[in-house]
Known about the structure:
By secondary structure, the chain is mainly β. It has a single domain, classed as F0F1 ATP synthase delta/epsilon subunit, N-terminal (ATP Synthase, domain 1, Sandwich), CATH 2.60.15. Helices cover 0% and strands 66% of the residues. It contains no helices and 8 strands. The two termini are 23 Å apart. Residues 89-93 have low confidence and may be disordered.
Amino acid sequence: MAMPFDCRVITPSGAAFEGQAEYVSFPAWDGQYGVMANMAPILSRLREGELRIEGDSPRTMRTRGGFAHVNAGVLTLLPDEILEDDGAIEDRA
């Protein structure tokens, strides 16, 4: 079983996801990236594509533009826009 880590997806209009993830796949400018716990720090531009969050509350979004940042075990995705969202409910408790 994969170790969970903190993940945030923040758009200019607000938070789209804040919670724990076991694996996240996102569209970077140079290909699809996969992130798990204890990932080395990165900073990357995002391109349009599918963002997939796996864990207790799996979620899929289609995003456009922005940046991804991994630091101190936290993945922060800052897409310019979310084009589609699968509507999964995130437990924010």
